[in-house]
Fold this protein.
Amino acid sequence: MIQNILHSRDLIWQLFKRDFISGYKQSFLGIFWIFIQPLAGILAWVFMNATGILNPGTLYSGLCPTWKQPLGALHELLRLRTVWLRAAH
């Protein structure tokens, strides 16, 4: 199997290149999307962090276990479900 791959590496390279380029050929900016998309994500994260919309330091700082928030949300959902069931009967 490895010998087949080694013998077909030129074909594999040409197929990879064709598929890679065809994915960006139809778009307006072409292959520049490879660089634009991550930069846009980074800029959005920096903007949200600078304006205070996103502040990851407070969520994971100190000794705060990360499992407290999902469990607290689950507890609140179960409490609301119980209140709703009591009101329905």
